[in-house]
Task: structure prediction
Amino acid sequence: MKTEILIYGLAQGVTENWREDLLACFPNNRLALENIERVKTATSAQGFHSFRVATYDGSAPNFAKAVNV
Result:
């Protein structure tokens, strides 16, 4: 699977990070930076804030590594 770009954001009035919404998902290609800015601009106009951009390569998450108990 090719790497994808995921953009998350918080809706207007929301401050808890665990409540972020997935706003967009698209392939990581030469248009990725332009697409990220377009999504941020469009969703900012709708009240979204605190954006997070992540990549996903199709591999399963390693929860043991992510959680430090």
